[in-house]
Fold:
Amino acid sequence: MLVLGIETSCDETAVALVEDGKRIRANVIASQAELHAHWGGVVPELAARHHLEAILPVIEKALDDAALSANQLDLIAVTAGPGLAGALLVGLNAARALSYAWDVPLIGINHLEAHVYANWLDDAGDESPSLPAVCLIVSGAHSDLALMDRDRAFSRLGRTLDDAAGEAFDKVARLLGLGFPGGPAIEKVAQGAGIAELPDLPRAWLEGSDDFSFSGLKTEMLKQVRSSNLTQQRVRDLASAFQESVADVLSAKAARAARRLDARSVLLAGGVAANRRLRDLLQQRSPVGLRVPPISLCTDNAAMVGAAAFYRWQDGDRATLALDIDPGLALGSRPAA
Ligand code: KG4
Ligand code: ZN
Structure:
């Protein structure tokens, strides 16, 4: 089954061609990161306008890259939410128009579930992950801990009570005078800092719950920055201590949930899953096999949308041309078709 996946929920215009939920035939991403870096964060109106300019060329490039044509497609899959409304609308309307014009079935995909399905792509491993799985989905807008059961149904165990992990990385990077997006910038400067001498930063364990909180850590970072002479070394140590605090809590809580629920695997997903310290700590702590997509498939892409669509189609999901966006779509909810 050949799926054309379309993803425009935030600041990447992404289109991919994926075969049988596994094999990537094309994976094109037009990133707007540089544009938004100028403003220190994603500007929704600018994102929508740039998606509009990029979407058709990116679709054409994906088909060209794979040397495939529209009449070979079996399904068009598009992210329907969660995400920025104006941005989502561009991908969704392109998908609806092409579904109608090319007479190819349509399916709406939940962006958070798509991140998890990046772990089903060939590039993430030979075999499909074992279920039930505990999923840690950490991105710029979300930090969720979820259980994916044997029937591939998601239920949320916990979420962030304030900032998403990626959002915290982005805000702290700004405090430290580092670039946007903040995650990769913090990871880069943190390299080479020795863990033993780092400032001790708070960790919100929220015992007895699977929720997260990063606002106390962020406030402490602000205090540290205000009271420090921000030398290069101090920035490195603060960045590293911050990364350590976030990775410590996320990995410990995911591992604990996996043990408690007798999960057969742990799946890491979302932009923050690109963080090597988080990957390493979770690898050390997980009581069962850990799956993490390759770094290029952790941040927003459409290959993950194509993978999710294959399984959702098998599970009976269908959409009509009335498919609409749902900017607040929760994990475990399907887009209204
Ligand atoms: O999943 P994603 O591409 O977009 C959303 O759906 O939000 O995630 C983007 C987020 C940003 O906050 C970015 O700073 C973070 O992922 N991120 C990272 C790393 N790479 C991206 N955070 C920590 N370490 C990284 N290496
Ligand atoms: Zn995302």
Remarks:
- The chain has ten helices and ten strands.
